[in-house]
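Researcher: I'd like a structural prediction for the single chain below. Treat it as a standalone chain; there are no partners to consider.
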Amino acid sequence: MQPKTCCGGRSFCIMQDINEELKKDDQNESAGQTEEVFSSENDEIVLEMAKAGVFYGHKKSRRNPKFEEFIFTSRNGVEIIDLAKTLKATDTVAEFIKKNKDEKKTFMIVGTQPSAKDSVLNLAKSLENSSYVINKWIGGLVTNFSILYKRIEYFKKRKKDLEEGKFEGYTKKERLLIKREVDKMGQSFLGLDNYIKIPDILLVIDSSIKNHITAIKEAKKKKILVVGIIDNDDNPNDFDLFIPANDHSRSSINWVVNRIISKLSNN
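Model: Treating it as a single chain, here is the predicted structure.
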């Protein structure tokens, strides 16, 4: 694909390139065998994706070799993710999540990078009683469930007792120490109030983060299904289902997660 002058901005220009390349593919295949990924109905969706930067990968030097089939092209050393595959995968994952939600399966959502936190909270809300991790992943959260569960229940009781004034008979120093303990545990166990059983499905945004790698390894040991939003530096083989997309940009993550949420709300 040859670079060309475009007055509509970098995202719009790349979107035009993608559409042109897909049209060429359509012309080379029979109508009965070609799936029209970017129909007129989807043009606006593709433009939204482009504006949100969903197609931006990392530099080619960082690419995981197993991600190659999801790369459309590259621009100035940065790889461009195939939006056709991103859109299709997003809807597939949304259907999978909706099906399992309807079957009362439990989810744990992991996204500790600042760009993912809002989306994690919104998705957790849509999935009602799902657990989530937006701070550091606690080692053993899945593989050492029985011990961590007891610690979380201890935290919940201490927090409740503190709120109900059950420590009023203690000295000021003792109450201060208890409050500090509760506050510290509150940061560690944020999002885990409903964590009463090992989740059926782990949802991860960006598997290249060290804490997320640990989470995925723990899930695999417990045979938990792993679903994720992954970029070109991630290994697709680490996932049972995944969405190839820009996983380091707030706007991109928001677009993908918001589309999933909109699909969950549709009957």
